User: Which sequence fits this backbone?
């Protein structure tokens, strides 16, 4: 299974106030920059490291394959 952490239940049940908020109320809180009750903020910090190079070969887009296949043999 690729993402087992997504199947775990939350550590505690959501507060009653969270279940009573409508989508519009949540959106209003977000737009006003206020905290939404029951939502946790992950502590994510940039690593400032260089990205790791890809281990896989790039897959050509279908249009590029089509162009290569339709070009005259002397242009390939």
Assistant:
């Amino acid at each position: 299974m690729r993402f087992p952490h997504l199947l775990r239940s939350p550590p505690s049940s959501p507060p009653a106030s969270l279940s009573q908020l409508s989508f519009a109320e949540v959106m209003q809180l977000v737009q006003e920059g206020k905290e939404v009750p029951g939502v946790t903020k992950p502590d994510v910090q940039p690593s400032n490291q260089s990205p790791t190079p890809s281990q896989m070969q790039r897959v050509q887009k279908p249009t590029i394959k089509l162009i290569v296949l339709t070009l005259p043999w002397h242009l390939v």
Observations:
- Residues 23-31 form the longest helix (9 residues).
- Residues 15-39 form one domain.
- The chain has three helices and no strands.
